[in-house]
Here is the input.
Amino acid sequence: MNKSKILVIYTGGTIGMINDIETGQLKNVNFDLIYDHVPELKRLNVELHTKSFEKPIDSSEVNVKDWVEMAQIIYDNYSDFDGFVILHGSDTMSYSASALSFMFDGLKKPIIFTGSQLPIGTIRTDGKENLITAIEIAGAKDERNNPLIQEVAVYFDYKLLRGNRSTKDSAEHFEAFRSPNYAQLGSAGVSIIYNHDKLYRTTSEILTLNTNLNTKVALLKIYPGIDFQLYKGLFDINTSKAIIIETFGAGNSPSSESFRALLEKYISDGGMVLNITQCNSGSVKQGMYATSSMFTKLGVISGIDMTTEAAVTKMMTVLNQSNPKEILQLNLRGELTL
Here is the structure.
């Protein structure tokens, strides 16, 4: 079998840092010399190529422009490679993975995000294993010589997760990511075991890329005693085109006339409101309790079991389309359970 051709894209983040011998400070790795830093990669049955952002970014600084750059690199090189690995800071990795999953339609090759909690140049780094296995996964083929993974995924600490189902839940542990409402796509031990029945397959024949994202999306987390008038400015169609509300439990909020009035006017003015749960796992079930019944009556859309990262990025990608409300309720890339 021919070697899989993999493009590794370094955007920034902890994984790409090593100690400067002279200054003792951390500096960015030159990924053109990737075999010098991770010689174990030579043993993989892949042909590696690398490309780095001209100016590596801290993941806290990632924005839509960076998502477009990542996606454009992949789109421009799509026919030349069998798979792609994006090295990215862990703090916003799930946002970026979710965004790219919605920006691409018709994806039939793997885009694997990975990173590390410790710099790749430190002795105890988790970066080497994450990088090596992410590349191996990106190069994996099925019995018909097609890419085994055909979606955007996150690989971190022996777990392969759907990108738009992942969320970071630890700032300290190597096991930094989880997938609260969907099973792992695979796990790495002595062998890499794939959950074949959980892998996503597109029905679109042609690869397309949507870079027309709308950032006028607000996020409001409900809390006990909230004064909704403090957030009145969000409910202005000239300020935000959509609002995602993180509610209690199965989609509940306080019975507030002030909140109801804000929602009613905002939606009547053309604003979109999406309801997701702030719980670590579970699903919104609007109307199950009286406190959420007003959402359905007013036209608030249930986000079902989407993560915050998926809800925000999905909203950004559909807002500028001709029928965003209808598209938002569809299961586009395996991001929600219908």
